[in-house]
Amino acid sequence: MAPLSLLRTPTRPNLYICARCAFRAAHAPGKSTKRWISTKYLHKVAGAELRWAEQASRVRSGKEKSMLTILEERGLVQTVTGKRDHVDRMMTDRRVGAYVGIDPTASSLHVGHMIPFMSLFWMYLHGYHTVSLLGGATAKIGDPTDRLTSRTKEHSSVGTANMANMHIQLKNLWLNVEACGKKYGYNWEWAWHRELINNNAWWNSLPMLQVLQLLGPGMRLGSMLARDTVKNKMSKGDGMSFAEFSYPIMQAWDWWYMFHTKGIQMQIGGSDQFGNITAGIDAVKYISTHHPDPIVRNEAGAVGEPFGFTVPLLTTSSGQKFGKSAGNAIWLDIEQTSAFELYKYFLGTADADAEKYLKMFTFMPIEDISTFVKEHMEAPEQRKAQHKLAREFVELVHGVDEAKLAETQHRLLFKNPDSVLFRPEDPAAEAGIYSLNNKPKVNIKLPRFVIYQKSIGRILHAVGLAKSHTEGHRLVNLGGAYIGTSPHRRKEPMNSGYVSWGAITAWKPEDTKLFLIHDDLLLFRRGKSNIKIVQVVSDEEYATSGEQYPGMTREWRNGVLKAMQVKASITSDEKANIEKLLAEDELYFKKQGEESMAKHKAKVEELSASLLEKDKPAPLPKVEFAKKPKHVDGADPAGWIDRL
């Protein structure tokens, strides 16, 4: 007979975790998925370490230049924290991790941002672990460095759009870095490692008490108040808020988090960030030595010592920094600064700066740059160095096709100002070539009725991801279209802190609005990199803008405009604009013939009437008073008179 212990029913029921909770736990922000380590992987690691040791040996013997020396030769290092030789030795002996952080306080990167990123790109091409940190959380506070006035508060949807824009820009930029590096002999290797991270991944789930407990005791008020940023803003500016005062604490915690979890030892920033970098070094050292968990202290000690360096700022001839705040930014977003204009900006570089910028902004070898500059000086009027600089930079930012087109346009313009490429009616559009006049936009506007009433196939056509609504539906059925959404649930808006995608399915037209971020923003994607950021506006705003999306009918626009004409709330300017647009459409249909004109008018009247019907206020509910019961003697036993 079996023992009684085997026959006894357990008092504790079996634990059960639902599939949704298990998925959330496995995909929580900041949680890494553990994998089995294969022998093949260990062989790759051993081979990479051996090649690194051999390279370090060649550097120490003087046969190759060190990484820090390469960056210094290209003008990408201004100030190093600590002793220069010690930093040089650490970068030679170890495959250290480095990061550059940027807050999405604007909708695009600008040329000034490229200098610290060029240092990071060079380190990546030489085998270092590199991280691009997007400050989705810190952008909500804003870096007060070198500012005398506080940043104006923007709507949350603006911050989300900025974050999504920069995320897309950085992804494309890294792809172009690999392509440009390959052109100069830097072929991808297995040990190369790059990451694009958003600090919302940990700040969204980080208790502030933990930050104060681990980092707070190490951040002394005396040293924080002594910083130039604090003193200048307090004495010359509009004062400093507690949020701005806490910004260095947030930035320091970002470094500690990556130092502990990813082994990131180095921070790279502009020369105006030297104070934040040194504060971050002190913070990382403090937590590493004072953390209450001995395991964490040992792990931090194994990473090594934190350090960093600054790069020179890109300034105007008067010494003013480039940027959004100064109002002189040269944006890298092709919608804000076209490839043609970006090429033109670098084409205007002075001869004295051409060699410096070729070293800073390109991957050309130093020897080739020297040769090229000598050839340029023989005939400076041909601006060979400037054309090379402009071509290389546009190729790095926008890709080889845009760079070729911009160069062709500029050379044709130089030879013949009346070139066909610069006429208002661009023949490139007919040939299917993207030009300045017909290039599809990443950021577009759509009227609200499209998102609320149209099928997903028609929406994909409207945003420019499909050539027709039929192709849009086919794309959905094949699983090739995506929408910005919550990483854990279907049919919910994307978290405003970081970009996450979900496959679009053939849902009902009214379901698309469930993905709206802050009620006016949507993200769509086709394939890996064809991304559209859609701002949803009112039907009236879109109709009066004069814009047309693919698949839009003039009847719809005229119906909205006719309905607006009836309203008494419109201004005289709005009325004049409406009449102008209606006249243009009427002229268009007159050219089509009388029958077409009659059909157009009938549809417009029908649409206008339906829109006006929707705008009518709902009728007030009918109120019925209770009737007084009749009594022969005229008495009021139930008190009806008092109630009425």
Main sheet specs: 6 strands, mixed
CA gyration radius, whole angstroms = 31 Å
Indicate the overall shape.
globular
What would you say the CATH architecture of the largest domain is? 3-Layer(aba) Sandwich
What's the number of domains?
A: 4
CATH topology of the largest domain: Rossmann fold
How much β-strand is present in the residues? 5-15%
List segments where confidence is low: pLDDT < 50 over at least 5 consecutive residues.
416-440, 637-644
- Name the CATH superfamily classification of the largest domain: HUPs
Would you give an account of this structure?
The protein is 50% helix and 9% strand. The strands form 2 sheets. A 6-stranded mixed sheet has the order 1-6-5-2-3-4, with helices on both faces. The protein has helices at 4-7, 19-26, 39-60, 67-73, 84-93, 114-125, 156-183, 200-203, 208-214, 221-225, 228-235, 242-245, 247-262, 274-290, 294-303, 339-347, 351-361, 366-378, 384-398, 400-415, 427-430, 448-453, 456-463, 469-477, 539-545, 554-566, 572-592, 594-615, 640-643, and strands at 79-80, 97-102, 129-134, 193-198, 264-270, 307-311, 443-447, 481-484, 501-503, 521-526, 530-537. The protein has 4 domains: 97-311, 3-Layer(aba) Sandwich (Rossmann fold), CATH 3.40.50.620; 339-430, Tyrosyl-Transfer RNA Synthetase; 457-539, Structural Genomics Hypothetical 15.5 Kd Protein In mrcA-pckA Intergenic Region, Chain A, CATH 3.10.290; 554-615, no CATH class. It is of the alpha/beta class.
